[in-house]
Amino acid sequence: MRAVLAGVQGRGTVVIGEGEKDEAPMLHNGETLGDGEGPDFDIAVDPLEGTDLCADGLPGALTTIAVAEGGSLWSPGAALYMDKLVVGPQAREVIDLRESPEENLRRVAEALGRSVEEMRVVVLDKPRHESLVAELREAGAAVSTPSAGDVAGALAALLPGGGAHMLMGVGGTPEGVMTACAVAALGGGMQGRLAPQLDEEVRALEETEADTDRVLELEELVGGSASFVATGVSGGELLRRPWWSDGQWFTESIVIAPDEVRRVVEGEREHEGAQER
User: Fold this and answer.
1) CATH code of the domain containing 30
2) SS3 letters for 191-209?
3) Number of domains in the chain
4) How many other β-carbons are positioned within 10 Å of the β-carbon of residue 246?
């Protein structure tokens, strides 16, 4: 990723990456990439979402990146984890992280014209979510609990036929910002709130006087035009794993972009098709 981004036209700043969280040597917050000739843009990146899934040979691992207008992505600073609530377009006006999970479940179900018993919620299978999962199931909802992959979980709630209606729970801030880019492009709804999980993270946030009670709206997480891309690594329901055919490797990706970007891409495809004909 870094090698490709280094040659991109413009000046890209990694607003949120994996450098600090995973002690990675590159793609860290504040790193600049690109040839410097052209527009400024923000980068949010998770080079491998679902690291353990990939290492264990399990489906669900993705490589993900989001790019946005310069200065438009929320910068989490020392925050590594955040509580998230993600829904599709029909329910974007009814969610509120200040309310209980059961109340949000009820509101979203009503907005979708469903009963609570028809709802499916994605929550990561983590010890911190035991009470959340129990509360949602007690209310009557079906809860899917993947061991990792809250970006994939958010896409399941956003995309038609994705198999879920909501994403709830605490996950990484890189995944949160990238998810926000996809949510904004698709017209969905999202809220976030800092939820530190590590002692050093708590101390760092206290030193910067970060407000861990404040609910961040979608417009604060991504304030401008943004695009999101995910490519399958270990396969799964969302995206196929890389495969070899006719002497070359193929990958499957999903590109989520605002309408103006999508029109440009489709225009290029039509032009290429005319050249081939």
Assistant:
1) 3.30.540.10
2) EEEECCCCHHHHHHHHHCC
3) 2
4) 5
CA 88/CA 266 separation, integer angstroms: 24
Whether 93 is covered by a domain: the verdict is yes
- 8 Å CB contact between 49 and 21: no
215: its two tokens:
């609910």
pLDDT in tens, 42-76: 999 888 888 889 999 999 999 999 999 999 999 88
Q: Read off the pLDDT of residues 107-118 as tens digits, 9 standing for 90 and up.
A: 999 999 999 999
146 and 235 share one domain: no
Question: Do 135 and 212 sit in the same domain of this protein?
Answer: yes
Mean pLDDT of 216-237: 93
Residue 56 lies in a domain: yes
Is 272 contained in some domain?
Answer: no
Domain assignment of residue 248, yes or no: yes
Q: Within 10 Å of residue 7's Cβ, how many Cβ atoms?
A: 9
Concatenated DSSP letters of 135-197: HHHHHT-EEE--SS-HHHHHHHHHSTT-S-SEEEEEEEHHHHHHHHHHHHHHT-EEEEEE---
Structure tokens given for 244:
């070899």
What domain range includes position 199? 81-222
Instruction: Give the torsion sign (CA, 179, 242, 14, 206).
Output: positive
79-83, 171-175, 178-182, 248-252, range with the lowest pLDDT: 171-175
DSSP assigned state of 254: E
Strands 120-122 and 243-245: unpaired
> What CATH number corresponds to the domain at position 183?
3.40.190.90
Distances (CA, A) of 90 to 124, 222, 244, 247, 252: 23, 20, 40, 45, 28
